[in-house]
Amino acid sequence: MATRQRGRPRSFDRLTALEQATMAFWEHGYETTSVSDLTRAMGISAPSLYAAFGDKRTLFEEVVETYAVSYGAYGGRALAEEETARAGIGRLLSEAAELFTEPGHPRGCLMISAAVNCSTPEVEESLRARRNANLASFEARIRRDVERGALPPDTDAAALARLSGAVLQGMSQQARDGAEKEELAAVARLAMRAWPAEAPPAGAEAEVTGRAATGPPSPEAPVPGAPAPETPAGRGA
Amino acid sequence: MATRQRGRPRSFDRLTALEQATMAFWEHGYETTSVSDLTRAMGISAPSLYAAFGDKRTLFEEVVETYAVSYGAYGGRALAEEETARAGIGRLLSEAAELFTEPGHPRGCLMISAAVNCSTPEVEESLRARRNANLASFEARIRRDVERGALPPDTDAAALARLSGAVLQGMSQQARDGAEKEELAAVARLAMRAWPAEAPPAGAEAEVTGRAATGPPSPEAPVPGAPAPETPAGRGA
DNA sequence: GTCTTTCCATAGCGACCACTACGGAATTGA
DNA sequence: TCAATTCCGTAGTGGTCGCTATGGAAAGAC
Question: How many domains does chain B have?
């Protein structure tokens, strides 16, 4: 890649167009967003779209990938940065309440809602796989805390992960159904009460009655906050 | 309506055809199920479909209505028959785990998934209204228990209702994503742990936390299994 | 300038969409 | 039997779908 490319350079910004396509898909879903909707939203013509992004399905996959990186990364960060699985998922749900209702972009989560009832099985399957991968990352994070002793040994990690994913998905639909940020935040807060009593993260003194801290706990106590990436595809479960 | 109708009688059973249309819409959603999909599933030709059911949208509305009555009624019954809101919603979620994964029909809930990303706003809005009505019926049922003293006075009825709806919606999507009955049942069971401690249902010993009787001080104590329909449109929230 | 390369707008492809005009077949009441 | 009435299969409506062939305009290299 030495010389600059020869011919006429393209007259639109590829990343801007991609973001506009993201908004369109996010709002209306894969199937319901037609190519002519896309060209209108992106401000380019159909041949330009096909030259720059391949076909509609390839464009959607690229949209999902950038969405997972730029938005879904919140979830991965919450899980990785927080001391415990409980704090991580609590923060993830709380941030989701904000993200799902934030002005400036469509409501809810693209990975959750954009390929429901999709007649292209590959597309539906692609997002389903991302959702299930995130469920698996929830479960792994919880299981780690169980093994570490931060959660009771009889904790059902799979069920807790699935519940967290279900709440997240329900919050997404309710955001699209008109729920406001505070309402979803209350749901997120309440959902954390289903968690078992949190054991002391490490060497600290004990404490008994269930239902411990909900918010971000000790800034940095023991256990040097696992660098773990843990979630390959961002939020969405 | 005295005399029998004159001409040639229709050669298919209307209710059977309606049920086959229900299965098609349930599986693929409103938008993605084409009229030719419907005629194939129902075993009739397009003109017969239009003569018997009006247009596609009218057929869908009729499908939704019968679905709400025959399937969604489970939810209304659970809410009406159980002693407490907690028991009612607990039973509703547990029955949903079964219904959403039962063989013999598509997975998940038609009212939750069939009009996501729908390009016909009236259809999308119609199911959204049913979901929100069910949320409201959850909230009313919970609020009644709070006023009755069966739940603590500081219970956030709206948030608890919304959480229940979110879990239900998430369970529907996870059923479609492949979750099995036991997994969803575990989610349902776990979700009920978010509920506050249940107070004795009626005239039992006093309780502490402030605030004297607010609402109607439960004239008839334990409230026998309320005949109330309570939910006009069945499950779906 | 000239040539080469690439972009992009017009215009149109076949396929499918929801929906319906038509006419023969079937079943009634008289 | 004869109309009257209704059903339903064939075939086709205009419209939109995802996608692309063509060809002029624009911007580099020389």
Answer: 2
